[in-house]
Structure formats: structure tokens, C-alpha cells
Design goal:
Elements lengths: L28 H10 L11 E5 L7 H7 L4 E5 L3 H13 L5 E4 L13 E6 L8 H14 E12 L3 H25 L6 H18 L9 H12 L3 H9 L8 H10 L2 E6 L2 H4 L7 H10 L3 H12 L3 E8 L30 E3 L3 E3 L10 E5 L6 E4 L2 H13 L4 E2 H14 L8 H14 L7 E2 L35 E3 L5 E3 L2 H11 L4 H8 L4 H12 L5
Parallel strand pairs: 1-2, 1-4, 2-3, 4-5
Antiparallel strand pairs: 5-7, 6-7, 8-12, 8-13, 9-10, 10-11, 14-15
Helix pairs in contact: 5-6, 6-7, 11-12, 13-14, 16-18
Length: about 525
């Protein structure tokens, strides 16, 4: 585990462990733009945009964005020089030249030149001091372009009330560990502190099961099991540091309004489409309890016990509507006062493929992830099966909502599954359901599946070794995860890494196809999976 020098760290930022996070699907400007469009807002085109990421760490999120938008201009800032140096190294070795990394914090606004169309603050806002949160919102206000949008993720109540119990437990254990180290006259070590925290959590998860009071049993056990899957930096980030400030949605809205910023939408499909998946009666009951759209969103957070939100915000003067919650978009619905066809501009795809024999669309069908062949979902609906089957044949490219709807309608008509006049509504509900469950990728704006936006490059002329982002020249320790064309992290094992780096890099498509007939089985397997994942153009 790598540590970083905190001697020059800004006051109010407590961080000693290298933040080695992979990309976050919802932060890509194409996805942010799609959510903004569905909320009735017109963002700037992503292809030539200026993009700023706050707290960029070692570039695991921003460098893949820069690679996928080669005509954009990207800037990442982070107060820790060690992380910036590694971010520069990784982007250089990946051959990405439209991203710059600077050792700055959110308070260094005077040193950041120009305005930005997209500002990303992922894993930052809840985890810094009050002053730095103020500075973050001031930066968004001052540095957003006239039609710019910012993404801010933050921990949310009520869901974090439960996790606060575990956080207080581990903070208590950390205090006593540091006290014991001080008594021994030694400097507390991050590795030892994290080891002690995991042992404490394991102890409480195990022995609360034997106590008759069930209040904490399931909670601590569930979180302990969850944290086994996460690396050390995540445990430190969420549970051991001084700053972790969850917000109620209403309080977050009040705070951004104070800085002349307005909420547009949530970047997460689960939050954005949640109200479409609840019954009208449930929504009416929530509306009876509150008097505005912000109150409804807060009610949904209570109902769904949300623990995180991914807010998309903009300057207040950009919005004419009175409330702070976007209208719910119905796929295929004609919007009053709008002439544009958003369904032709919004694209989707799925990373799942059918693995069971399906003789009838109405039968239960199982779909496995093409990322790892472990994640699986079962579908029992005719229209949902039709959507999944069609989209899986499109993968790794995408299809517009308009074309998808037409093809699904034709498919259901052919098999006499169309029904009588309810297709538009059924299609809309099925698509929203699959997106909110994560079975279909979050909608993206204007992206047809190429890793380049240059008009003079055809599909055949795109270099086949364009793996995003770390396979070209990166050190092995940096390559445990790669990012596919849809800004989704994909796990690659050590054997596959070696084959991809040594064999795929620098070869042409024609050479690869020729090699497949005579290469060893591992190469064939690796090449096939890389192509399916969208790692190759």
C-alpha cells in the first residue's frame, strides 16, 4: 500500500493513503450531458469541451475521459504532489496528450485559468472540511461556463445514519490504536492502523451474532462483508478519516442555492428514474407530506434509504423553472415547447449477454456480464427480454432510443407480442426499469461507439491498439483495471495483461485476425474478450 507526503497538505485535508480509484461510470461528460438533456437543460457539446476534475488523485477517472474525447481539453487538480506525478506518468505512458495535471487544491481558484463546461467532483465533497466545501461550490460558481454543468457526489442521509455507527466504531478503535502507539513512542503506521480496523470490524461482526440484541447484528455483518471487497484506501476514505459529512438532500440544495447554483438532476439512473418505478399511490402519499419537488426527492431518499447522491448542478440564472427537481422524461413522449427529438440523440447499450436457451420471449432468461461472467440477472418480461437480446447484439456499440424503439416494435409485431396500443408506455417502463437496475448502461449523448471524435478518421483507420487507458507502456502494478469504451472499469487478469500488452499493442486489425488462426488459445481468448468489452476499436 502506497502512502503520500502530507507535509504540504492543505489544512482540513487529512489523507495519507494513495487514492487508487478506478473510473466512475456516471462522471463521463457524455453521461452527464444525457442526464442534463433529459432534465430539460442544453449542455455544451462534449467533443470539444473543457473539463476539470477536482481531487483527481492518480487520474483513474480523468485520463480515460480524455482518451475517449481526444479533442477536449482536460485538467485535473489534486493537492498531493505524489498523486499528480503518478497521474502524469500514467497519462503519458498511455499516450494521452490532451490532459494536464496540476498540484492544486479547490482553494487555489486563482491559479486555475479559464472556464469549464464540465466540472467533476467525485468522492470529494463529503470528505473535506467545511471551508473546502465552501471553496468547492465557489469554484463551481466562478469557473463554470455559461452553459456549464458540475457533478458533485456526496454521502446522503438517511442511508449513512446506519453506516455512521460503523464509522464511529472504527474511529474509536483508531483513537485507541494511536494512543497505544504514542505510549510506545512509535509513529502510527497506516498499514497497521488499517489492519487493526479490519480486525475490529471482523470481531464485532462475528460476536454481535451471539448477542440477543439484534439491533447491530445484520448492519455490522453486512458492512464488514462489503468492506472485504474494497481496497484499503476505500476503508480509510469512508470510515477512518476525520471528515465525512453526509447531507440530507434538502440541506444540500439549500447549500448550493446559497452559492447561486441550482440542482438539475441526479447522474445516477437509480435516483433519476426511481419515481418511475414506484406506484402512483406511493408518489401521491409522498406529495401529501411535502409542498415542493425538493421535498418529494427528500421523501424518496427516506423511502429508499439512500446513502449516496450524484448531483448535477448549474448556475442559477441558467434555469427558468421554479422548482429544483427535473421533470421526469418519458421515452418517446413529445415534450411541450420542444421541437428536438431527444430519443434520436440519446444512446444506450448493455454489457449483459443471454446465457440460457430462450424459446419464448415471455420465458425467464438469465443474462451474464461480459465484463466478468459473474454478474447475472434474470428477466421474465417479454419486452424486457426483447430489449436485452437486441442490445446485446449491438454491444459494444450503442443504439439510439429512437432506433431501439422501432426495432423492438418490429420484433414484437413479428412474434405477435405487441399487444393493443400500449406499446409506447410499456417500452418506456421497461427501458427505465432495466436502466435503473444497471442491466442497461446509463444513457449517453451522441456516442455511437467509436473511441475517436475526429471526423476525418473512419472506423478502419482507428488504431486497434487503442486500449483505454493503461495498456500502452504502463507498469504492471498500474494495470489491474482498464476502462472500456463506455467508461466502465473492467478487470483483467495477469495472463491477459501480458498478452494484451505484448501482442495486441502495435498490431493492425488485419494482422490480429491473421494471428488468431495460429496463435495460442490464451491469445485468442484475450483478443476475443478485449473486442467484446469494447477495449479495441
Amino acid at each position: 500500500m502506497s502512502t503520500i507526503n502530507t507535509e504540504r497538505a492543505p489544512k482540513g485535508i487529512e489523507w495519507t493513503v494513495k487514492y487508487d480509484a478506478v473510473c466512475s461510470l456516471y462522471t463521463h461528460p457524455r453521461q452527464l450531458a444525457a442526464s442534463a438533456l433529459l432534465a430539460g437543460f442544453q449542455p455544451e457539446p462534449t467533443e470539444t469541451s473543457r473539463i476539470l476534475e477536482l481531487g483527481c488523485a492518480i487520474g483513474g477517472n480523468l485520463t480515460p475521459i480524455a482518451a475517449s474525447l481526444p479533442q477536449s481539453t482536460c485538467l485535473g487538480i489534486d493537492p498531493f504532489t505524489e498523486q499528480i506525478q503518478l497521474a502524469r506518468l500514467r497519462s503519458r505512458d498511455a499516450g494521452i496528450n490532451n490532459v494536464t495535471y496540476l498540484p492544486l487544491g479547490v482553494s487555489d481558484i486563482d491559479q486555475i485559468e479559464g472556464e469549464f463546461d464540465y466540472i467533476i467532483a467525485h468522492g470529494l465533497f463529503s470528505w473535506i472540511s467545511d471551508q473546502h466545501r465552501e471553496d468547492t461550490l465557489k469554484l463551481c460558481r466562478d469557473k463554470l461556463s455559461p452553459r456549464g454543468i458540475a457533478y458533485i457526489s456526496y454521502n446522503t442521509y438517511p442511508g449513512w445514519h446506519q453506516r455512521d455507527l460503523v464509522r464511529h466504531l472504527l474511529r474509536w478503535q483508531k483513537k485507541h490504536y494511536e494512543r497505544r502507539a504514542d505510549q510506545r513512542g512509535v509513529t502510527p503506521q497506516d498499514t497497521e492502523m488499517i489492519k487493526e480496523a479490519r480486525l475490529a470490524l471482523k470481531f464485532f461482526a462475528q460476536y454481535t451474532q451471539s448477542i440477543t440484541n439484534k439491533g447491530n447484528q445484520e448492519l455490522i455483518s453486512t458492512i464488514e462483508n462489503d468492506l472485504r471487497k474494497f481496497p484499503d484506501w476505500y476503508l480509510v476514505h469512508e470510515y477512518l478519516l476525520e471528515h465525512n459529512h453526509p447531507y440530507y438532500f434538502e440541506d444540500f440544495i439549500e447549500e448550493i442555492n446559497h452559492h447561486q447554483l441550482t440542482y438539475l438532476s441526479d447522474a445516477s439512473s437509480n435516483a433519476q428514474l426511481a419515481s418511475r418505478l414506484l406506484s402512483p399511490q406511493m408518489l401521491r402519499e409522498i406529495d401529501f407530506m411535502c409542498d415542493d419537488a425538493v421535498g418529494r426527492e427528500q421523501g424518496l431518499d427516506f423511502l429508499l434509504n439512500r446513502s449516496m447522491r450524484r448531483a448535477i448542478i448549474t448556475k442559477t440564472e441558467n434555469i427558468s423553472r421554479a422548482d429544483m427537481s427535473p421533470p421526469i422524461y418519458l421515452w418517446g413522449e413529445e415534450r411541450v415547447g420542444e421541437s428536438r427529438d431527444l430519443d434520436a440523440e440519446i444512446f444506450v447499450t448493455t454489457h449483459l449477454t443471454l446465457v440460457t436457451e430462450l424459446k419464448d420471449l415471455s420465458g425467464p432468461a438469465t443474462y451474464h456480464s461480459q465484463h466478468d461472467n459473474k454478474t447475472s440477472f434474470t428477466v421474465n418480461s417479454v419486452i424486457e427480454n426483447a430489449l436485452m437480446i437486441l442490445l446485446s447484439t449491438v454491444w459494444p456499440k450503442v443504439i439510439s432510443i429512437k432506433e431501439l424503439r422501432a426495432q423492438i416494435q418490429a420484433l414484437l409485431s413479428e412474434f405477435n407480442h405487441l399487444g393493443t396500443g400500449a406499446f409506447p408506455q410499456l417500452f418506456s417502463v421497461a427501458l427505465s426499469t432495466l436502466i435503473s437496475k444497471g442491466m442497461i448502461y446509463h444513457p449517453t449523448w451522441g456516442y455511437r461507439g467509436h473511441l475517436t471524435e475526429r471526423a476525418n478518421e473512419t472506423e478502419d483507420s482507428i488504431p486497434p491498439q487503442k486500449l483505454v487507458p493503461w495498456l500502452k507502456g504502463a507498469e504492471a502494478e498500474m494495470m489491474s483495471m482498464v476502462t472500456n469504451a463506455h467508461h466502465y472499469p473492467v478487470s483483467i487478469d495477469s495472463e491477459e495483461l501480458a498478452v494484451m500488452k505484448e501482442t495486441l499493442s502495435g498490431t493492425t486489425k488485419r494482422e490480429q485476425e491473421t494471428q488468431m488462426s495460429s496463435s495460442d488459445p490464451l491469445f485468442v481468448k484475450t483478443y476475443t474478450r478485449a473486442k467484446a468489452l469494447g477495449l479495441l476499436d
